[in-house]
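ugh ok fine here u go
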Amino acid sequence: SGVNCEADSESCPEEQHPCYHTYSKKIDENNWWTLTQRDIDRDYAKGIADLSQANFDADIAEFEQWVDVAELILTVAAGAAAAAAPGSYSTPAEESAESGSDANEDAGQAAQTTRARANGVAGEEAAQQLRSFQ
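structure:
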């Protein structure tokens, strides 16, 4: 606007007027569009950061799954070694192998769910994608 409240206070609306602060702080259309664009840029940057965090979380879940697989292999190997002794019927070794297998399946599903969410898949689409992994 062409109104300058500092130079000509009479051309400025009174303080009770809804536009008073707009004129006194010299907010014009250009300022408004600049602030709007900043808001859009902030939202975009936040979206990129959220996506990066989701991908990082999915990578961590995948790494943890590999660690669980390695732990399962070691547990099964230890159970097999314990069961190999003559006369040893190792129920605890069998139970630990079963629990390791169950834990590995749970970790795998968690990693796949996190990966699906990181790729922007939600709801029924995520369930379909999980079924396709299995």
